[in-house]
């Protein structure tokens, strides 16, 4: 027998879950359920598998408990609510003297997901880069790195290090991530992921017109769960909106291309005359004056000259059109000269190929997810003209990265470690959600504390070269912020 329940979210995420019973009437200790939350209330999907075939209740208690907590309405503290609901289920299971179960749950709100995994369940992420197992099972087989061809492998998968409702001390593996439109997170019980790891099943999201529920059904068919002894339970959350793509007209693309062309022209070609009067510029958020930076202009790089061909952008544009664009630039694109080079922190990747006259880049080649919190993207400051425009320029260099707008980016350096750590750890999750943090200190600011997961990006910058400079922030201020606005701090973060 096959039971399926699903719901599609029409804002940022879709959610679906599926329970596929197997051919054995005895080993059917599976459960899957969920709840759709209308933003700002979080939704959830949860799957569970009984540890003992004679236990008919543990898995069902778990999915119903987690579902009911979110059905009551969770708008804040989603990660805490998810963990508390799992631990509440564990208390109920112990109170009834049941054998316990493995369980996995994903909660979601907006562009955020939170997960909690225990026992022999797993969590996978699917995106344009392929399939990646984010959280593995807590079994003896995984603990000792036993290969699938070992004769005791399938036995040791059921031999758990910790499970929900067990008497041993322990807690689920919890975490947080951002979800993009081309990303899907999938949770599976052991009977499901065993088929995934040991067969030719391809876990992908081809065919964007297929709903998430339809895709889960096709995965179940590929795994042949209905013909297995136990079957399997699956749950998924996807950033695909309703399972359908949006078509952008050629006129819209032409408008975007023209806009980016103007940006590239006035950012990189620097057409301002050397005789032009340069006024003193001020910061976009305060009256504090900013150190004036005047870019060198070569006399021979005037549009129409022989050397202008080297710039590339002039090769296919008539001189008359360029002069018209120059005459009208002040009405379209603001003068960014005083904001250059823009301070950028790059996390991961290789040496950047961005123009050094426009971007001052600090590199963190080897980020560590244990001490930092990040997801790939281009993080700019909302309302900061230079940050927003140059984020589009960077996006053309890294087209696979999503632009995420923050209200502020805070830079912590050596002189403000203690005050910044206390203030950042006390910030509410809803305010931290719009705040980026770059750490450039020789000592640790957070030490991998759980509260850094409230920040969409909490990363290291150039600790060795810039730790001695003054910290600060760019963007909107907040009450109690223990640093001052500083134009030498970061206004753009690239996470590759």
Structure description:
The N terminus is likely disordered. The relative contact order is 0.10. The protein is elongated, with a radius of gyration of 26 Å. The chain contains twelve helices and 20 strands. Strands 1-2-11-10-7-8 form a six-stranded antiparallel beta sheet. Strand 14, helix 9 and strand 15 form a beta-alpha-beta unit. The protein is of the alpha+beta class and 496 residues long. Helix 1 runs antiparallel to helix 2 and helix 7 packs across helix 9.
Fraction of residues in β-strands: 15-25%
Q: Numbering strands along the chain, what is their spatial order in the largest sheet?
A: 1-2-11-10-7-8
Largest sheet: 6 strands, antiparallel
Mean pLDDT: 75
Please report the total strand number as a whole number.
20
SS class: alpha+beta
Q: What portion of residues is helical?
A: 25-40%
What's the quick description here?
By secondary structure, this protein is an alpha+beta fold. It contains 12 helices and 20 strands. Strands 1-2-11-10-7-8 form a 6-stranded antiparallel beta sheet. It has a 5-stranded antiparallel beta sheet with strand order 3-4-5-6-9, with helices on one face.
Layout: helices, strands, pairs:
Layout: E1 2-7, E2 14-21, E3 30-35, E4 43-50, H1 58-71, H2 78-95, E5 101-109, E6 112-118, E7 122-127, E8 130-135, H3 140-143, H4 153-157, E9 173-178, E10 184-188, H5 190-197, H6 212-223, E11 231-238, H7 250-269, H8 319-332, E12 342-347, E13 359-364, E14 377-381, H9 385-397, E15 403-406, E16 408-413, H10 417-426, H11 429-432, E17 435-440, E18 457-460, H12 463-466, E19 472-475, E20 492-495
Parallel strand pairs: 12-13, 12-20, 14-15, 16-17, 17-18
Antiparallel strand pairs: 1-2, 2-11, 3-4, 4-5, 5-6, 6-9, 7-8, 7-10, 10-11, 14-20, 16-19
Helix pairs in contact: 1-2, 7-9
